Structures are given as C-alpha cells and as structure tokens.
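Database export, one record per block. Field names are fixed; values are copied verbatim from the stored entry.
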Amino acid sequence: MDNKKKYFIVIILVIFVFLMVFAFANPKNNSEKKSDGNNTSEKADGEKDKTDSDSEDETLLTAEEQKEEEIQVIQNWVVRNNDEEEARRLVLEAEASADDTHVYDKAAKDAAQKAVDKLPNGQLKDLLQERLNIIDEGLDLQGLINKLEEMVESAKKTLVYGDMAEARDNDTTGEFEALEKRLEDFIDTAGHSSVEAKLRKQMDELLPYLRDTDKPTINIDNGTILNTEQGKDVEINDEGVGVAKVTINGETFDEPYTLPKDEGKYTISVVDAACNEKIITIVVDNTAPKIVLDKLLENNLTNDKDLTITDANNFTSKIEKAGKTVKENIASDKQEDGTYYDRYGVFSGDGEYTVTATDAAGNTSSVTFTYDFTKPTGEVAVQKKENPESKTAKRGDWLVFTVTFDEALSTTP
C-alpha cells in the first residue's frame, strides 16, 4: 500500500472519531414535556421550551463551526505532512539518482526542487534546500567538466595545438576559472562517494593533457646533416602524455624511424597527444667532397697550383706534407648557389702532399700528389756512331747525341 492510500485512511478514521465524540457530547432533545392539566403551567413550560430551543440552536451552530474548523486543521496538518514526506522522498531520490553516465539526474533534482519550494519556510525546508544545493553544484561541475572533456577529445583528434591551447586556456579563465578548487570543495562537502569518485576520475584524466606543455624530443646522432648509407635511426621521446603522430615530409613516419638513404632535405614532425609539436629539418648527404687538380698526371705529379674542393654542404679540409700536418680545420666558403667551395693557390715547395676534405655529414675524400715546380736538368753526351769510343770526329762522321735528365719527363724533347 503506497503512502497516499495510508494517509487517506488515516484522515477518514480521524474524522469518524471526531464526529462520534461530538455526537455523544451533544445529544438531540427529542422527548416531549408531560402536561399536568394546568393551562398556566403548560403555557409557562411552552415559553421555557421555546427559550431553551433557541439557546440549543445557537449552541449547535457554534459547535458545527468549531467542528468544521477542527476538520480543516486536521486536513491542513495531513496535507502539510504529506508535502513534507513527499519532499523528503524526492530529495532522497535525487541524491540517489547518480549512475555510470551522469552524476545526478537533473529531472529528479527538478522534481525535488518543486516539492521543496511548496513547503512553508522553516528548518526542514532549509535543510532540504541545502541538500539540493549540493546536487546543483554537482550538476554544474559535471557540465563544466563534460564541456572541457569534449574540447580535449576534439583536440586529441585534430592534434592541432590551437585546439588544445583553447581547452588549456579555458581551464584557467572564464567559466572554467578555479574549476579544480570548486571540485575539491564539492568533494569535501558533498558526502556522496560515488559522485565524488566519478568527477575526480574524470578530472584526473583531463589534467595531464591540460598541463603538458612540453614538446617531444627528437635525437639524431651527428647533427642534422647525415650520411645514411649504413642506416640511421631517429630517437623520438615524449615524457608527457605520449607521442601521437610522427611524419617525415608530410608522410607517416613509422617506428623504428629509420631515415631514408635518398639524398635531400627532410622535415620531421612529432606531435604528442597534448598537441605539442616538435619540428626539425635534416639533410641526407652520402656524397664526399670533390677535390680537383686539373693538371694531375697519371703518376700524381703536378705543377698546378690551383686545387679546388667543392661540396653540397659545409666542409673542412687539411693539408699534409710528407706525412706531417701543415694546416688543418680549413673552413669552406658558401657560394651564391648554396654549395661550398675552397681553393688552394700556394703550396710550400716541391714534395708529396695529401689534401683531405670532410663534410658535415662525415663524408671524406682525399688526394695525394707530388708538386714539382723545378725544371728538369740534363746532360748531353756526343758519340761517334761507328766508333763510340773515339774522342775525335771528322766531317762526314755520324754522331749520336744522348740527353740525360735528372727526373722523369712527361714529354720528351
């Protein structure tokens, strides 16, 4: 049997008891006065009966009004108690309305608020309203956290820094101002463990994305100009919420992040789940510098003073003579077309030289040659063809001229 039926039966019983008590306390006078035959006495008695009847009517009228008033009091008391019980019940239902999908059911809270608003001012109404205020705060916090969660989830899908920055900014300004403080205050006062746990868990899952402002790291051995012929891996890390996307020249770059062997320029982008992005540009260079001596002979002899070195990237060079370093760490010059160049015009005398050039990618080339700036010298010997031992000759003898040089010649006279 529900509460309304119980209250209705109580009302009927109370009214019935009240009417019974009233009936026994005010019986109706139906007996008639006996006459003793005396006309005077009968007349007097008649007048007295009339007076008593009028008095009795007034008494009955007053009692009827009192009865109606008492009934009204009882009805008001019953109604008030019904309203109070209904308000208590609805507030309890609103407090118990939390489930896995929301903190409180707003419809249940609104129904309870209507019931509490109907109560007369007093301690009970104040106490119930305080409990509804806690539910209101929980619903408001849930709305803010849900909105923040939607912004974070949207940013995680786009991986656009501006989207996450908007969520991060809203966490500390505007409608999200002091959101964490409000949540802590609610947890301290609500006393609803399941509600507190849900909101706390939801907020704790959002905070790492809102607080992570550090970019991922990209580590490559030997800088950003690299020789990748033997393979070269990129090390990518993120100490925050983790790496979400890696691309190289706009294309997906998968682990183990091995660089391509094709020469050229590459842009690597790493974005973490909090939308922080790190970008670096590298150059793959697998070609050694080019060293040129235009007049270098097959036997590596030359008297060409102009030695040039060129490379697509910056390089340094070193000169050695007879195995000893003459000069090192010679910087190259950048040309208008972006390549690098160096030229040696003076070497200190004849001898064997080695020139080594190493570019920024570690590619090395060298050339060894002998500089000879001294003219060859020779001796001329004259002999008779038929009698080489003879020291004299006469007109008509055939003579043989022999020229001997002190070094090998590239061309003969």
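Remark 1: Helices lie at 3-25, 39-95, 106-117, 123-158, 161-170, 179-190, 193-211.
Remark 2: The first helix runs from residue 3 to 25.
End of record.
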